[in-house]
Amino acid sequence: MRLPSVRDYVPATSTGRTFAVTSLINAIGTGLYLTGATIFLIRSVGLSAGQVGLGMAVSGIVGFLATVPIGALADRLGAQRTLTGLYVWRAGWFAALAFVHSMAAFVVVSSCLAAAEAATQPMSQAVASATTEAADRTRTMAIVRTVRNVGFSAGALIAAPLLAVGSTVAYRSMVLATAAAFVLSAVLLGRMRLAGPATVQRKVGPLTAIKGFRDWRYLLLSGLNGVLSLHITLLSVGLPLWALQATGASAGFVPVLILTNTVLSIVLQVPVSKVAERDGGAALALRLGGFALAASSLVMALAGGLSSALAGGAVLMGACVLLTFGEMWQAVGGWDLSYEFAPEDGKGIYLSVFSLGGTGQRIVGPAVVTGGVIAAGTAGWIVLAGVFCVAALLVAPLTRALRQAAEPPAARSQILVNAEGQAS
User: Fold this and answer.
1) Which UniProt keywords apply (predicted)?
2) Mean pLDDT highest for which of 247-251, 271-275, 287-291?
3) Domains along the chain with CATH numbers
């Protein structure tokens, strides 16, 4: 892998560069809010930790249910218009959140936010893909992901002094700044001029489009990607809890692990994405992601029981690096395969269906990791490694089946005739 240059991190088109800036702005706003969300909700809104968890669980379910209908709507309106509307929607509800004072209001507002948040990722993928040529699509998506990681980190840094102030005004200003970031993003996105529509608009209604979805192979691919997306919960929940409960590592070492993941993701996501640019590269990337996550889980198991802080920290760092490579390979493989197998007149609904795997992981992942993997100890990590290996091995036959299903009947018949001729 050659060392990346500055040019590698810049989209090839002016529209792509504008979209990257848009992504940076709303990522800063999101990072600003997420860093202080729990503190804001407890100290400013007056909720208990249990109420916050319940509200987030309800909103997560709402987001899961709203994703596909919004994707179907995008096939009728266009992904750019839909994404612009989602940014405006999120800005309005973040502004409302700043003045919430009850549990009921929090559930309503957070559910409205979650509905838009869950649909934003597939719409962003559709718009980003429309800003450049197909040959540069993978790199553009990698740049967008890198930019978003930078934005999340910047938002967290901005939040630090506001949280230090500790006043209601500071907490509210943090949430209102998030709303302002989405307003600015919506303005920039609405002014973008794509070469063509981000999706081919369909004349059928969203409900008809949902009822007509019959691609079970694509749905299986979404589920497979959701299993591999468990790295999100492993990083935020599994790694910190395992480090504190089962190893000799100190609590102060956990932020170092998170920082390592963030830095590696920012620096290496673009060069790592090059593996998907060759024929069959996207499937290879997804397989590599699964095997890297399996290796990370085995190293986690090895870390259990190490009483030495130095030894435990070193092994956990190795697990973190493997987890980060698994994350990057899974991301690039998932992007390309989800886009490749989505028909041109159904990008919105297909990409939204694909995102359900990741959304579902966010809902059930914490329970699986804490109540299953960590509760079972070393054996739990070994079983999880086996799950990741199985998922990785299933990528090839599933993508092969999707390609065969996508071939026109005449093309499949010709392949069979050629095969029979060669056999005789």
Assistant:
1) Cell membrane, Membrane, Transmembrane, Transmembrane helix, Transport
2) 287-291
3) 11-212 (1.20.1250.20), 214-424 (1.20.1250)
